[in-house]
Amino acid sequence: MPWFFTTAGKRGICVLGTLVNAAAILLGGAAGLLLKNGLKENFRDILNQAVSLAVVFVGLGGCVGNMLASGAHPVLFIVSLALGGLLGEGLRIEARLEGLGNWLQAKVQKNGGGGGFSKGFVAGSLVFCVGTMAVLGSLESGMQGNHSILFAKSLLDGIIALVMAGTLGVGVVFSAGSVLVYQGVLTALASLLSPFVTGDMLREIGIVGGILICAIGLNMLGVTRIRTGNLLPALLGPVVYYAVAGLLG
After folding, report:
1. For the chain, which terminal residue's Cβ has fewer other Cβ atoms within 10 angstroms, N or C?
2. What are 22-54's pLDDT values in tens digits?
3. Per-residue pLDDT for 126 more than 60?
4. Who's near 143: CB < 8 A, 6+ residues apart?
């Protein structure tokens, strides 16, 4: 049996959930590109507004839901965002993501593809990779061979990709590669990470991730221009906090 279909705990690493997730984004994005050509500009605008609002409220739901959970730390996400933002700004993460998107865009245009690639690639990569479902689903997939979370995420991502690709273009389709790499690495490392991952850690990651997804939606609406990519290190805040707390007993 191919290595990517083997069950966790055996010889290989099972990334079936991630493969399905990436395929759903590819199919949804391709369908969105086909629909885009048959829609007038006013219909594309309203679809963009609709999916942007949906992204905002998905982010708000994840953030508020986790903040209301028992044991949530009201200050940890603030510190994580502040320090993570400083680190991300220093590393110029968003500029590097856009640079990768521009490089891919040049390749696509060379082969007859369209422009506006970078915006769709960065937005899609962030929407599909930031969030508790991506982290928890990848860990469960790798540790237990249970892909139910990633299968549910695949359905959601496929629908979002359909709408986003119809408004932001082919870059959204290529963000499936980001999902494949990001979730694939988490799945591969799951057996090593599992002793250190706790419910409290995932809850705090969910709060930060929800805020970042909300920021992406606001950017898509044109309300703000938050450099969300530079805030990605904030997701490491809860990881570092609980790792240090564990060492200190």
Report:
1. C
2. 999 999 999 988 887 666 778 777 877 887 888
3. yes
4. 8, 190, 191, 194
